[in-house]
Design brief:
- With about 70 residues, the chain is α+β, with helices and mostly antiparallel strands.
- It has a domain at about 25-65.
- Helix content is about 20%, strand content about 25%.
- It is built from one helix and two strands.
- It has a two-stranded antiparallel sheet.
- The protein is rod-shaped.
- It starts with 16 loop residues before the first strand and ends with a strand.
């Protein structure tokens, strides 16, 4: 037989998944023939680290909990 040794005001510790999302933003200029080409060029520049976001580019932090 298992005896409950917790006091009435104690709660059992549980694990929670917490997501922390930081938003950063930088405005860059891209020369291209159309909007789609400009987006693709900007994405490529970001992937190639030609555009780097720094702490000065920070905008917001959100914290979400998952159950």
């Amino acid at each position: 037989m298992k005896v409950n040794t917790m006091k009435k005001d104690e709660k059992a510790a549980r694990k929670f998944q917490i997501e922390i999302v930081e938003t950063m933003s930088a405005l860059i200029e891209v020369v291209a023939e159309d909007k789609q080409s400009a987006l693709l060029k900007a994405q490529e520049m970001y992937r190639n680290e030609q555009v780097v976001l720094y702490s000065d580019d920070f905008i917001d932090t959100k914290v979400n909990i998952f159950q």
